[in-house]
Design brief:
The structure holds two protein chains of two kinds. Chain A has 20 helices and 24 strands. Chain A is an alpha/beta fold. In chain A, helix 6 crosses helix 7 (160-173) and helix 14 (369-381) packs across helix 15. Chain B has a domain at 47-291: ABC transporter involved in vitamin B12 uptake, BtuC (Orthogonal Bundle), CATH 1.10.3470. Classes of the chains: A alpha/beta, B mainly alpha. The A-B interface holds A 79-80, 95-100, 104, 108-111, 113, 118-119, 124-129, 283, 285, 326, 328 and B 209-210, 212-215, 217-218, 220-221, 224-225, 228-229, 231-234, 356, 359-360.
């Protein structure tokens, strides 16, 4: 076998004391397609950022371990160094300028220029662009990929698939490229486009370029990868070759049983058969979390979990229903159709929302705890207000009383109801968010990513709290979370969203493999094969 | 797509110029003005104002929005003009000296503006407007106190009787029509200053050329997405400063052309409306805060000044009171900006709706 192009030895990385990579080893050979699979937050992106020398790594204290590129230890401390060495990266989000043509984008800041009269006087920057030469290069790169699009078209309005190819063509056009990293390249592609893309990948590999391929789509891994590395919680948990791998194995390895599972509390009230909420053909235009067409019923009194990988639209559902992002479709709450795109309507009907964007949407950071708790109720339900001569006045004694009660009930650790929320810890801020939602006395509570960014101990408290609200007050709760383990610990049913649509609903004690398959979108494919 | 749909789409995409063309037509009918009179008035105003409007293009392309900071360029020009008048350099020579003199000043002002705007990314338009007001204070300090008060200067013709500060109005007799009169064609009341238009055309070509060079490509790239530009190794802050400097220098020269045509310097007022009128002009032409071309600048300047001439006349015809016509003018200048920004917003909304429809 030839010499490896890239070796990663014992790579470890901490973010603020939180270990995200633990002694990862990886070897890639020229011409090899190497897939890295893992859940969100498993550490794949961090690994690639290290490899590409992204500033975020170095501004957070660097990493430990060694990178050996082409047989020599490499100190990659900036993307520029990585590019010079011949590492190319195709980013998950497009780095394309919509107003530029394909050619211009391909040659961004690497334009071919020629002299003109002015440039001889005023220097390099005044050189004209040699559009003809740029065009030829662009054509060549696109041909290498086997894409048949006019290289002079503007990027704006092109289908996402084409955009992806342009990104790749740009990397290929850099003549020295030896290792290409694809960060979830097919996430936005349709099946036909993905096929085309995979063919292009094989073609590239055949020309001797090594390819690192990060993806969730396990079937694609099976199709193109020579070797597969599975990462979970920052550790390599499996190395497979294509021959020995099966989709089921990968799914199981990917999800795995997490050790710190929250003990399931005995539940008494598991919901009735009555639907409290019916979602029909919901579409939400939330950037990065587009909901394409979701049909889902929520039963009265249950805790429904909504899971799925990042970017597939699970977060968009609650945001869409609550009117925070443009939505269309039909949502029926307690038998009545709600007005979409109107937060006020939704709130006044008895739904409440704890946003995933705690610091942005959820809280007024510089206001006191008590103000944050009562704000929505004052606004929507006119609680804590008294009307004197047509002007609303806040009843501060009532507000104080209520805030104190909730602070005690939810165990919010603070110096008092007047403390600004900004100074609370993440977990306590989350409790304030929940307290505000509870103040509305909703029949249905949406909670998005309730444990994001808070420590393990606080996680359990927050989840217990939700459970208590459900069990004691009979509140129906819909939790959206990226952490499957947490959904499985308290939910009655778990809906998995894939590609903006409902992939399936599983009981919390379903098999790891099933969860893994559904999250990777492989479930319906398999179902199709069987039928 | 049917013809009707095409027309509808065409109108929708150019809603701003279309609306204002209709306004102009209606106004012209109401005002009962002779077309020849309108034409000759507009030609004079085009020569006066085009370069000022052009100075807005580069910042728009570079993503800085509409640069109200061209007021600073105008100030640079006026400082140069006062100097030239003081030294009594007249004719085309005086104009050229003023043009040269205004360059270092406007580069300095542009650089400072650029520095500030780099600190206020995303709020460039309001920041540049406020900078204009702030600079106005310093400008007044210079002309009311420093000249004669700190820097010794004696010139009875242009200074206040006390010997400190510059008069409210300074006659620019020395350089009046310095550029316009070199080559011109006259026909009745219609005068076409050929050389002035040639100079303006030259600048239009220069801007076009610039945007096709490597530098222009980088400016456009920064204008579209600062993040992507930075990732591909372009020095974003530097590009933005370059754009503002070029804009300020062009504005200074534009103001020189403007004032040599008018022949009188309102020391404390000539520059104030410069940003507002130029912005209104380019907006009427269909430019937006993210897109502007030479063609839009020319069309917009034409429509704006036509409306500007027509509206007081129309006001007088309708109400029979010339004073009301003056109100009409102010109303038009500010109203134009409001209406065209609103129309652009509507256009954007429509486009977004179309996009959503397509996706679903």
């Amino acid at each position: 076998m030839s010499k490896p192009i890239l070796q990663l030895i014992d790579i470890s990385k901490e973010y603020y004391g939180n270990r995200v990579l633990k002694k990862v080893n990886l070897t890639v050979y020229p011409g090899e397609v190497h897939a890295i699979v893992g859940e969100n937050g498993a550490g794949k992106s961090t690994l690639m950022n290290i490899l590409f020398g992204m500033p975020v790594i170095h501004s957070t204290g660097g990493f430990s371990g060694q990178i050996i590129f082409d047989g020599e230890p490499a100190d990659i401390n900036s993307p520029k160094v990585a590019m010079e060495k011949g590492i190319g990266m195709v980013h998950q989000e497009f780095m394309l300028l919509p107003g530029f043509t394909i050619t211009e984008n391909l040659k961004l800041n690497r334009e071919i220029t020629k002299h003109n009269l002015v440039s001889k006087l005023l220097g390099e920057k005044m050189k004209s662009l040699d559009m003809e030469a740029m065009r030829k290069d662009a054509r060549k790169a696109l041909d290498t990929l086997g894409v048949d699009i006019d290289e002079m078209l503007p990027v704006e309005g092109l289908p996402v698939g084409h955009k992806q190819f342009i990104e790749i063509a740009r990397e290929i056009d850099k003549t020295n490229v030896r290792l290409l990293v694809f960060d979830e390249p097919t996430a936005v592609l349709t099946e036909i486009e993905a096929d085309l893309f995979l063919k292009a990948v094989e073609k590239l590999a055949a020309s001797g370029i090594a390819i690192l391929f990060i993806t969730h789509r396990l079937s694609e891994v099976m199709q193109v990868a020579d070797n597969i590395t599975v990462i979970r919680d920052g550790e390599v948990v499996g190395r497979l070759t294509r021959e020995e791998a099966t989709i089921e194995d990968m799914a199981r390895l990917m999800v795995g049983r997490k050790i710190d599972r929250i003990e399931k509390t005995k539940k008494v009230n598991n919901g009735t058969d009555e639907n409290i909420l019916e979602i029909k053909n919901l579409k939400v235009d939330m950037p990065g979390e587009v909901v394409k067409n979701v049909n889902l019923n929520v039963k009265k009194g249950e805790i429904l979990g909504i899971g799925g990988l990042a970017g597939h639209g699970k977060i968009g559902i609650a945001n869409g229903i609550m009117g925070l992002y443009p939505a269309s479709g039909e949502v029926i709450f307690k038998g009545e159709k709600i007005k979409l795109n109107s937060p006020n309507d939704v709130l006044s009907r008895g739904m409440a929302f704890v946003s995933e964007d705690r610091r942005g949407v959820g809280l007024l950071l510089d206001e006191s705890i008590e103000k944050n708790i009562v704000l929505t109720a004052m606004q929507v339900q006119r609680k804590f207000l008294t009307r004197i001569l047509g002007v609303n006045f806040a009843l501060s004694s009532k507000i104080r009383e209520h805030a104190k009660k909730l602070i005690k009930e939810l165990d919010i650790r603070c110096t008092g109801p007047e403390q600004p929320v900004r100074r609370l810890s993440g977990g306590n801020q989350q409790k304030v968010c929940i307290a505000r939602a509870v103040t509305l006395e909703p029949d249905l509570l949406f909670v998005s990513e309730p444990t994001r960014g808070i420590d393990v101990g606080a996680k359990k408290i927050v989840l217990d709290l939700l459970l208590k609200l459900n069990q004691e007050l009979g509140m129906t709760i819909v939790i959206t979370s990226s952490e499957l383990a947490e959904l499985r610990s308290i939910c009655d049913r778990i809906a998995i969203i894939y590609d903006g649509k409902l992939e399936g609903i599983l009981p919390p004690d379903a098999d790891d493999t099933d969860f893994g398959l559904m999250m990777a979108g492989g479930h319906s494919d398999k179902a199709k094969e069987v039928s | 797509m049917s013809l009707l749909q095409n027309i509808k789409k065409g109108i929708r995409n150019n809603i701003v110029p279309v609306v204002f063309t209709i306004l102009c037509l209606v106004g012209a009918i109401v005002a009962q003005a002779s077309p020849f009179f309108l034409l000759s008035s507009v030609v004079v105003r085009l020569a006066r104002n085009l370069l000022l409007v052009f100075s807005l293009i580069i910042p728009v392309v570079s993503g800085l929005g509409l640069n109200f900071g061209i007021v600073l360029g105008a100030m640079a020009a006026q400082i140069a003009l006062v100097a030239v008048t003081h030294w009594n350099i007249t004719g085309l020579g005086g104009f050229v000296v003023a043009a040269i003199l205004s360059v270092p000043l406007s580069i300095l002002f542009g650089w400072l503006t650029g520095k500030v705007l780099n600190k206020a990314k995303g709020n460039e338009m309001i920041t540049s407007m406020m900078l204009g007001f702030f600079a106005n204070g310093l400008y007044q300090l210079l002309f009311l106190f420093i000249l004669g008060g700190v820097i010794p200067m004696v010139n009875e013709a242009i200074m206040l009787p006390s010997g400190i500060g510059i008069k409210n109005t300074v006659s620019l007799r020395g350089i009046k029509y310095a550029l316009d009169d070199v080559i011109k064609i006259s026909y009745g009341s219609l005068t076409i200053p050929i050389l002035t238009f040639a100079v303006i055309a030259l600048f239009a070509l220069a801007i076009k050329f610039l945007l096709q060079t490597k530098l222009g490509q980088e400016l456009r790239c920064v204008g579209q997405d600062m993040n992507i530009a930075a990732t591909s190794g372009i020095d974003v802050d530097k590009m933005r400063i370059i754009a503002v400097i070029m804009s300020t220098v062009l504005a200074a020269w534009g103001q020189l052309i403007h004032l040599q045509n008018i022949g009188i310097l309102q020391t404390y007022g000539s520059h104030e409306q410069v940003g507002l009128f130029a912005v209104a002009s380019i907006l009427i032409g269909g430019a937006s805060v993210t897109k502007a071309t030479i063609g839009q600048a020319v069309l917009g300047t034409f429509l704006f000044h036509l409306l500007f001439i027509i509206s007081p006349m129309a006001g007088q015809q309708l109400v029979g009171e010339p004073q009301v016509g003056e109100y009409f003018r102010a109303f038009v200048a500010y109203g134009v900006i409001g209406v065209s920004l609103a129309l652009h917003a509507w256009q954007k909304q429509q486009a977004q709706k179309d996009k959503l429809k397509q996706e679903i």
